[in-house]
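dumping this here before i forget
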Amino acid sequence: MNRDEALRALGLDHSASVDDIKSAYREMVQILHPDKFASNSKLQSRATEQFKYLQEAYDFLMKGGSSSSVRGPSSDKPYTGDTRSARLAGIAQARVQLVEQKDLVLDQRRQGLIMLVAGGLAAFALRRIPAIAGIASAVAVWGIVQLFSSNNTVNTIDEHLKKLKKEQRRIEEELASERSDS
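structure:
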């Protein structure tokens, strides 16, 4: 990994300060942390890979890749237009990943609903055969669990998408204001 790749992973450009790097890292951790997807092993695995890449980029910038080219932590310089554009690119990338994850979770929610309905109908229709009715009931219960856990994950993803949209609007307004001032 080189410095440019590390900065891109955090949605930053070459003029990012140490404070910018830390802030971008914290934001990305909130979005990509694998624990947020504990109910879905496929999503958690993907988030773990992305989280490791994010961590590698952050470590590179904070240890070896940032010594001569990143402004020090005492810099209070606000985001520049280039930094804002890089942040917008990072937000866009995070939104794409979250939408993909949401699609997978919505598929799981549909599967949970199907298991609930099919299991419930089978349990009712086969209630005179206790062994099969018990299995069908277990399928229905698993469908309920899948449905509720998927709903919680969808709600969490939606909250993150709203935060990203709010941040995107704020940065776009700053850029528009900056353009109108010049």
